[in-house]
Structures are given as C-alpha cells and as structure tokens.
Amino acid sequence: MRIDEKIKILFTIGGLGVGGKERQLIELIHGLPKDRFECHLLVKKHDAYYLEKILDSLDSFCSLDKSSFSILDFLTVARHVDRVKPHIVCSWTNITSHFGLLARIVTRHPYRIMNCCIRNAPVRFTATLRFERFMYSFYGCVVANSNAGLQSYGQEGKKNRFVLYNGFDLSRVPTCSKEAARQKTGFSGDKFIVVMVASLSKLKDHKTLLKASVHCRKKDRGTQFFIVGDGTERDRLQQWSRDNDCESNVTFLGKR
C-alpha cells in the first residue's frame, strides 16, 4: 500500500447487542483516526443496538439480515471483501473469523485477518472450546481482552498475540463526585464498596463473588457488595446468599 493511503479495516461480527465485545468494538471504531483509517462493518443481522452511535464513523455498513449463518456465507464474506478491498479483516466472533479464513481461498483481494474473539479464560474445555483453541493456531494475529485468555487458549508468548483491555469512555456518563454518587445510590459513606455489573448467568461466575463476600463478612464488616444486573441465575444466587448468611453485606440491585 502507498504511504499516503488509508488503512481499510473490515470489521465483522454477528450482531451489535449490548455485550462487552460489542461495546469494545464500538469504542475502537470511534477512536481510530479518520485521516488514517477507513472503517467498514459487516454484521449477520440488522438488530444492531449500537449502530446509530457509529454510523458517522463508518465508510460502509452491510447486514446479511439473517438470524443464523450457513457454511456458504463465507462466499458472501468473500464477495464483500472483493467490494471493500480491506487491508485487514478484523473479526469479533469465531464463525466470522473462520469465514474470513475460508474467504481467502476464493477472494481476489489479499488481506490480513485479526481474530479478536478471546473474551474469556476457560478452566474446563468442552469439545467446542477445544476446537476453537486448535483453530487459533491458523491466525496470524490474535487479540484477547486479558492475558488470562491468551494463556488459557495456549496463545501466550506466540508471535502477534496481543491484549486489548476493555476500556470505558468516561465521557458517556456525567461527572459526579464520589459523595454525590454514594448519596444517589444509597451507598453508605463508611463502607468499602465492591460492585459487579454483569448479566446474571453462569458464564459470569457470580458465585465466586458471593463466596468472597462470606470471607469478607467474617473478617471485615465494613465491606459491602452490590450486584447489578439480571438474568436466569438471579433466583439461585439470591437463595445461595440467604442460605450462606451473606444477605447483610450483599445487595442485588437488578437491571439498571
């Protein structure tokens, strides 16, 4: 590519829901300097929660308008690559990453693939996770949101393996002092506050936080835990909290 040529990036993802990888992708597109990069986005289905927040930052947007992928969709990805002609295909879901690999077989346009799909650090591996761990070896560049993720998937120390932490754009929320925030939320000023914000699902492992609250209650009653979010595990977690006598320092705030 020429020195004065913009770097074209085609981002691919299943959808733009309200999850962590979606938010990170949005912040990344927002943050890339427009005088150096062209940003293109391909999604599976046009149910994009965040789309309106980045339309002005995109040079093109394409939705396949499908509820699920089929194996032949890699040909659709290949045709889109030939239209956009990106230097980099940056994928945020495993299946679109694999489509990017397959598309290189039939596309006329050369490109590099960045696999940005490592968002967890499993201790136990299912057959599917073992397959994904094996597939990472085929990618020239892998990006995770934690060192633990790279290590878990056997990618730590390999060439072109990077960590891009989940950041937070503070301009999204109004400036608020610690005292005002405590007053608004009802958090006591004499307590050390621990907050976990996540959907209440097994993937998020709230049980470890609850176990920590039990230890803290025994050693220091000045620590208060707040769990923000809702989900299928809420009743079970609240029952565990009652059964283990940690209701006094754990509060479930629900969806906010």
Question: Could you describe the 3D structure shown?
Answer:
Helix 3 crosses helix 4. The protein folds into two domains: 157 residues, Rossmann fold (3-Layer(aba) Sandwich); 79 residues, Glycogen Phosphorylase B (Rossmann fold, 3-Layer(aba) Sandwich), CATH 3.40.50.2000. It contains nine helices and ten strands. Helix 8 links the parallel strand 8 and strand 9. It is an alpha/beta fold and 256 residues long. Helix content is 34%, strand content 21%. It has a seven-stranded parallel β-sheet, sandwiched between helices. A three-stranded parallel β-sheet has the order 8-9-10, with helices on one face. The chain starts with 6 loop residues before the first strand and ends with a strand.
CATH superfamily of the largest domain: Glycogen Phosphorylase B
Assembly state: single chain
Radius of gyration: 22 Å
**Beta content:** 15-25%
Number of strands: 10
The CATH class label of the largest domain is Alpha Beta
Shape summary: elongated
Q: Helices and strands: which structural class?
A: alpha/beta
Tell me about the biggest sheet? 7 strands, parallel
Number of domains: 2
What distance separates the N and C termini? 47 Å
CATH-defined fold name of the largest domain? Rossmann fold
By DSSP (H or I, 4+ residues per run), the number of helices equals: 9
- Measured as a percent range, the helix fraction is 25-40%
